[in-house]
Design brief:
- The complex is a heterodimer of chains A (about 525) and B (about 375).
- Helix content of chain A is about 35%, strand content about 25%.
- Chain A is built from 14 helices and 23 strands.
- In chain A, helix 2 packs across helix 6, helix 8 crosses helix 12 and helix 10 crosses helix 11.
- Chain A is globular, with a radius of gyration of 25 Å.
- By secondary structure, chain B is an alpha+beta fold.
- Chain B folds into two domains: about 200 residues, CV3147-like domain (CV3147-like fold); about 140 residues, CV3147-like (Beta Barrel).
- In chain B, strand 13 and strand 14 form a beta hairpin.
- The longest helix of chain B has 14 residues.
- The chains are: A alpha/beta (about 525), B alpha+beta (about 375).
- Chains A and B meet through strand 23 of A and helix 2, strand 10 and strand 11 of B.
C-alpha cells in the first residue's frame, strides 16, 4: 500500500495504490504553506479509505523548489568556491547569470588551485594556507551556505571533499553542497547547480519540515520519498540536502503515471492542464530526455530533464468568439469561477468540451445556446494544435499511441485525424500523483575513460559500481538495482579511444521491497 | 564597426550555422568574449582594406579537443598572453588579429584577443566554415607558414614552434594540446596585410552576425528561415544556398577513429518513406548521398538545422528522431582551386572520389 502526492501550483492530488491497483484518488487546493494542503488531502484520503493509515510508504512530487528559483524567492546567499585555478581566469562563479538572481544569491566567490585534468593528472595542487584563508573569510562574513566545485570532480572528487572537511571543522553549522554530488561533466553548469542547491537548503528545511509535520499529523510513520527530475525517488533526508534534484519532476511524474495507467512503455503523452499542455515521449516506460542545455530560472544547468514540448492550450484557455483561436491566454485556477459553466462570463475550452458532450461539469444548461459552428470550429483548432505537437514529438517511422492525462484532458477531441490511437486511462486526472507513487530509486555516475588503458567491460563495470552506490545511498534495495541506461560518447580529437561513459541504474525502494519479501515468505 | 555585447550572441549562433556540424560549441568562447568586452572595451571590426599592406597580422584561436574545456575552462587573458609572447619572440608589433575559422568556437577567440590588446579584429577568416586541421586554412594554402607559433596552456605557460613544415606543426601542436589538458590557445601565421588580402575569406564575421540575427528574429519553420538567409549570401564569395533534404534522423553511428568522431547518419524522408539519405561525418558533415547519388560534398558547406526552429545542429548533438533540414552552400572559391582541393577535397577525408561542385551535382 503506498500513497502518491503531487503538490502542484493549483491542486494537491493524492492517490492510494495497492500494488498496481488504484484504491482511491482525491484532489484539494494547494496551500501557500504546502503543509496544510498535504494535511487536507491526506485527511480526505483517510475519509475515503481507512487503508490510508496502513501505507508502507509515501511518495511526494513537488514544484516548490523550481518555483522558488523561477520567482527568485526563499533563496539564500551562497559563497561559491571553485577549485580549478589557474584555468578559467576571468570566468568566475556566477558568470552569465541573470542579474536579478545573481544579486539574490551571489557576491562571495573564491577561486583556488585544485582539480584534475581529463587524463587524471593534477591540474594544480590544493594550497592549504589559501583554504584556511577562505575559511577565515567565511567566518568573518558569517556565510551560512557554500557550494564547492572542482575541475573534473565527477572523475575525482578528492579536492571537494578535502575543502568541505576544512570548512566543516571550523564552521560546523555551515551548509555545504559539493558539485560532484549533484551534476555531471560540464564545470560551469555543475557549479551553477551546486550554487542553486546550496541557496535552497534553508527553504528545503522549511518544506521538508512541513511535509514531515503533515505526515505526522496524519499519523503516517512510514518512509517518505521525494520525486526527482528523472522519475526516480530520493529519501526525504536526501531531498533535504538536494532540493535542486526536484527540478522538472512534475512533467516526469505525469509521463511515468501515464505509462503505469496504460501499461504502454512506448507512447506519446499529452498532459493537459489549466493553462498549458505538455507533450512528452515515453521510451521503455521512462521519459525521453532533452539533449539540450536546460536553464532553470535563466541559469544554465545540466540536470537530467525530460524532453517536453509545452503549448499554450488547456482547460482554462480563452476561446475567441469566432471559434478560430484558443489560448494562449487562460483563466488558470479561476476556471471554477470564471468559466460559463461555473456561472462566470468567460468562454473557455472547458465550456466548449461540455457543449460538445465531451465533459460533464458545472451547469450544462447555460451553454446550450452556444452556436454549434463555434463549438466545432474551436474543437477543430484544439485538434490541429495537438496534432501538430504530436507530429513534432513522434520519434520514428511508426506513429506511437497517444495517452491523454491531466485535469484538462476532456478538451481533447475524441479522435485525431491520421488514425492515431488515443488512450484515455481511468484516473488520468491524477497521473502526476500516480507517477510519484510508482517511482523507483535511481543513481547515476559518469567517467572519462580511455579504452587503451582498460577494457570497455571493466570501465563500464566501474561506472556501474559508482552509480549503484549512489542509488543505495538514496534508498534503493541493493539486490534489485539494475542498469537502466548506458551512454558512451567518444571524444573528438583524442586518439586513444577516450570516451565519456554514463551509467544510470534503478532499483526498488528498500523498505517496500523488504516488506513484500516478508509478506511472501513462507 | 564596434563589436558590442548584443553582436556576440548573434555571432555565436551564426558561427554555429557556418560550422557545418563541427567547430566546437561556441558557448565558452562566447562567455570569454562577453567578459572580455565587459572588462576591457568593445573590439573594432575592420575590413582588410582598411589596413596598409605592411600592417602586421596574426591568426588567433584554440587547438585541441573541445570536450575537455567542459571542465578545464579557458581564460580570457590566454590570447593576450600568447600575443605578447609572439611579439617578444618575433620583435613584431601586432596591428590586428584574424580568425582561423568562422565556424564554431574559434570565431570568437580573436575578439577576446582584440579586446584585451586594444587592437582591431579583421572581418574575415581562413576557412569560411569549420575544418579540422591547420593545413586546411586558406592562409596555409596560399603558402604562408603557421610558424613561428606560440601556444599557451591553461596555466599561462607558453611554448614556441618553429622551423617545421605545416604538417609537422599540425602533429606537434595537437600533441602539445593533449599533454597540457586538452586545449591550448595559439597565435600563428604571422603575416602582413598584403599577404592576408590575397587569401582571406572576406566579411565572414559580419556575415555570421547577420545570420545569427535572422536565426534569432525569424526563429521558426526552417524553409521560411532559409528564404530569409539566402539574400545574405548573395553579395558574398559563397555560392548558392539550397535545401537538400528535409526529414527525420533514423540512425546515427559514430566512433573515434584516428582522433576524429567518424561515422554517418541515416535520414528518412517525410514525404517518401522509401527514400533514404546518408550523411558521412568526420566532426563536420562531409557528404550527402541520396542512394548512390551524391548531392554535396566537402569543401562545400553542409549544414543541419532543426526543421521546427531553424536552429543549427552540431554533429555531436545529432540524435535519433530529430526532424532536420539539410542545407547545402557552395564554398568560397578559395577552396575550389587544385592546390586547395589537394588539402580540403573529399580524398583528404578518406573518400575515393574527386570534388564536384554542388551546383553541378544538383544540375
Amino acid at each position: 500500500m503506498r500513497i502518491g502526492i503531487d503538490v502542484g501550483g493549483t491542486h494537491t492530488d493524492a492517490v492510494l495504490l495497492d500494488g498496481d491497483d488504484v484504491v482511491e484518488t482525491c484532489k484539494v487546493l494547494t496551500s501557500a504553506d504546502v503543509e496544510s494542503g498535504i494535511v487536507n488531502v491526506l485527511a480526505q484520503l483517510q475519509e475515503q479509505s481507512s487503508l490510508t493509515a496502513s501505507a508502507d510508504s509515501v511518495m511526494i512530487g513537488t514544484t516548490q523548489f523550481t518555483n522558488a528559483v523561477i520567482e527568485r524567492r526563499s533563496l539564500r546567499p551562497v559563497a561559491a568556491i571553485r577549485l580549478g585555478s589557474p584555468s578559467g581566469r576571468g570566468l568566475p562563479p556566477f558568470v552569465g547569470w541573470p542579474d536579478d538572481i545573481a544579486k539574490a544569491i551571489g557576491g562571495v566567490t573564491f577561486e583556488l588551485e585544485g582539480g584534475y585534468l581529463y587524463n587524471g593528472s593534477i591540474l594544480a595542487s590544493l594550497n592549504d594556507t589559501k583554504v584556511e584563508a577562505v575559511v577565515d573569510e567565511l567566518r568573518r562574513l558569517q556565510i551560512e551556505a557554500v557550494a564547492i566545485t572542482s575541475a573534473f570532480a565527477p572523475m575525482n572528487a578528492a579536492p571537494e571533499l578535502h575543502v568541505k572537511q576544512c570548512i566543516r571543522k571550523a564552521l560546523p553549522h555551515c551548509r555545504i553542497t559539493m558539485s560532484h554530488e549533484i551534476g555531471r561533466v560540464g564545470l560551469l553548469e555543475r557549479e551553477n547547480a551546486a550554487i542553486l542547491n546550496a541557496s535552497l537548503l534553508h527553504f528545503s528545511d522549511h518544506v521538508i519540515d512541513g511535509i514531515e509535520k503533515a505526515l505526522a499529523n496524519a499519523k503516517l510513520t512510514c518512509p517518505v520519498f521525494i520525486s526527482q527530475n528523472d522519475g526516480t525517488l530520493m529519501a526525504v533526508s536526501f531531498a533535504r540536502q538536494f532540493p535542486a534534484l526536484t527540478f522538472a519532476s512534475g512533467p516526469t511524474n505525469s509521463l511515468r503515471g501515464a505509462a503505469k495507467l496504460t501499461g504502454l512503455n512506448e507512447a506519446i503523452v499529452i498532459d493537459i492542464g489549466g493553462t498549458t499542455t505538455d507533450i512528452g515521449v515515453l521510451r521503455g516506460g521512462f521519459p525521453r530526455e532533452s539533449n539540450l542545455v536546460v536553464e532553470v530560472g535563466g541559469v544554465r544547468t545540466n540536470f537530467r530533464m525530460p524532453d517536453i514540448l509545452a503549448m499554450g492550450v488547456g482547460g482554462g484557455s480563452l476561446v475567441n468568439a469566432d471559434g478560430l483561436s484558443v489560448g494562449p491566454k487562460s483563466v488558470g485556477h479561476k476556471l471554477v469561477k470564471d468559466a460559463l459553466v461555473f456561472g462566470g462570463s468567460v468562454l473557455t475550452a472547458s465550456d466548449i468540451a461540455v457543449a460538445a458532450g465531451q465533459a460533464d461539469m458545472g451547469n450544462t444548461s447555460v451553454i446550450k445556446g452556444l452556436d454549434s459552428k463555434l463549438v466545432s470550429s474551436s474543437l477543430n483548432v484544439i485538434e490541429k494544435m495537438l496534432a501538430a505537437g504530436i507530429q513534432k514529438m513522434n520519434p520514428g517511422k511508426t506513429q506511437l499511441p497517444v495517452i491523454l492525462v491531466g485535469g484538462g484532458a476532456c478538451i481533447a477531441p475524441r479522435a485525431l485525424s491520421g488514425s492515431i490511437q488515443i488512450v484515455r486511462p481511468d484516473h488520468c486526472d491524477v497521473a502526476n500523483a500516480i507517477g510519484a507513487a510508482i517511482a523507483q530509486v535511481g543513481g547515476e555516475a559518469e567517467k572519462f575513460v580511455s579504452y587503451s588503458d582498460m577494457s570497455r567491460e571493466d570501465a563500464i563495470e566501474q561506472v556501474r559500481h559508482d552509480a549503484t552506490l549512489k542509488a543505495v545511498s538514496a534508498g534503493a534495495d541493493l539486490n534489485t538495482v539494475r542498469v537502466n541506461d548506458i551512454e558512451e560518447v567518444a571524444i573528438p580529437y583524442m586518439d586513444n579511444g577516450s570516451t565519456r561513459i554514463r551509467v544510470k541504474v534503478i532499483g526498488e525502494v528498500a523498505e517496500l521491497n523488504a516488506k513484500t519479501k516478508a509478506a511472501s515468505a513462507p | 564597426m564596434k563589436l558590442q555585447q548584443h553582436h556576440l550572441q548573434d555571432l555565436a549562433s551564426g558561427a554555429a550555422f557556418l560550422a557545418t556540424g563541427g567547430g566546437g560549441d561556441p558557448f565558452l568562447s562566447l562567455l570569454c568574449a562577453q567578459q572580455a568586452i565587459k572588462q576591457f572595451d568593445a573590439a573594432e571590426l575592420i575590413s582588410i582594406d582598411a589596413l596598409p599592406d605592411d600592417a602586421a597580422i596574426v591568426a588567433v584561436g584554440s587547438v585541441g579537443a573541445p570536450t575537455t574545456s567542459l571542465e578545464l575552462l579557458p581564460s580570457i587573458d590566454d590570447p593576450a598572453i600568447a600575443m605578447r609572447a609572439f611579439e617578444r619572440h618575433t620583435g613584431l608589433n601586432i596591428d590586428a588579429v584574424v580568425s582561423f575559422e568562422i565556424g564554431g568556437a574559434n570565431s570568437l577567440i580573436p575578439i577576446v584577443a582584440a579586446a584585451a590588446a586594444g587592437i582591431p579584429v579583421i572581418d574575415g577568416d581562413g576557412m569560411g566554415r569549420a575544418l579540422p586541421e591547420v593545413q586546411m586554412m586558406t592562409y596555409s594554402i596560399a603558402g604562408i607558414s603557421p610558424t613561428p607559433s606560440i601556444a599557451v596552456d591553461y596555466a599561462g605557460n607558453t611554448a614556441t614552434f618553429e622551423g617545421i613544415t605545416v604538417l609537422e606543426y599540425e602533429e606537434q601542436i595537437r600533441e602539445f594540446a593533449m599533454a597540457r589538458g586538452g586545449m591550448v590557445t595559439t597565435v600563428e601565421f604571422g603575416m602582413n596585410a598584403g599577404q592576408l588580402r590575397s587569401c582571406l575569406v572576406p566579411d565572414t564575421v559580419s556575415l555570421a552576425i547577420s545570420i545569427g540575427e535572422v536565426l534569432r528574429i525569424d526563429r521558426g519553420d526552417a524553409a521560411q528561415l532559409i528564404d530569409r538567409l539566402q539574400p545574405l549570401f548573395a553579395p558574398t564569395p559563397y555560392g548558392e544556398m539550397r535545401i537538400l533534404f528535409s526529414g527525420t534522423v533514423a540512425d546515427v553511428a559514430t566512433s573515434v577513429v584516428g582522433g576524429y568522431d567518424i561515422g554517418f547518419a541515416l535520414l528518412r524522408s517525410d514525404r517518401d518513406p522509401t527514400k533514404q539519405i546518408k550523411v558521412d561525418i568526420k566532426n563536420e558533415y562531409l557528404t550527402v548521398w541520396d542512394g548512390p547519388k551524391l548531392l554535396a560534398s566537402v569543401p562545400d558547406l553542409i549544414t543541419f538545422v532543426d526543421t521546427e526552429t531553424g536552429q543549427p545542429i552540431n554533429s555531436e548533438r545529432l540524435s535519433f528522431g530529430q526532424r532536420v533540414t539539410i542545407v547545402g552552400i557552395g564554398c568560397p572559391p578559395h577552396f575550389r582551386t587544385a592546390d586547395a582541393l589537394a588539402v580540403v577535397g573529399p580524398r583528404c577525408f578518406g573518400f575515393d572520389f574527386d570534388f564536384t561542385p554542388i551546383e553541378q551535382l544538383l544540375a
